[in-house]
Amino acid sequence: MSKGNLIVISGPSGAGKSTVVNKAMSFRDDICFSTSVTTRAPRPGEKDGVDYFFIDQKRFEEMVAGNELLEHAVYVSNSYGTPRKFVEDRLSEGMNVILDIEIQGASQVHKNKPEAVMVFIVPPSIDELRKRLTGRGTETEAAIEARIQRAIQECREADFYDYIIINDDLDKAAEEMSSIINAELCRFDKRRDILNSFGK
Ligand code: 5GP
Q: What does pTM read for this prediction?
């Protein structure tokens, strides 16, 4: 069993998922983010290889055909996927690897890797979500509305997650994220080896 945890975080776009994880990363060094591939165009300020690997549809389809993606999905007309190798390498090194992915991809991970820890992050309300998406100023009103409708749909389908974090207060949300990771690291199966060593 790999020492690190595979942690899937999902939740409405605008819930502050990456902000929560970045904050948790500022006080612990055993967490890393998986960088996804996407066919979406970069937003102003986004960097290739940092925020995403920005690729075209042809390359995306090659990656799917070559089984290079751990999961993939279409979200509001763009394709997104998680490169498999990076995740497997980091897990085997003992890192806790975070996938920030939407719910269809999360459901694929949940089925294929039942040990994955499923965390749903939500804003305190839909009104707050609308405010955050509008405040970002990077999308048209129609795109924002599509994201809100998708968010409402995702919340209805989120039954298979293990934890919910309400991102009302960033420090508290990051602490909760860190506590979840700690709890998962204390799981019996992860620590069974110590019991075996006592018997020697
Ligand atoms: P955005 O376009 O706002 O960066 O992301 C849109 C949605 O796609 C977010 O909910 C984000 O979590 C999700 N997403 C990002 N990367 C991946 C991925 O590799 N796979 C899946 N299934 N969803 C992703």
A: 0.90
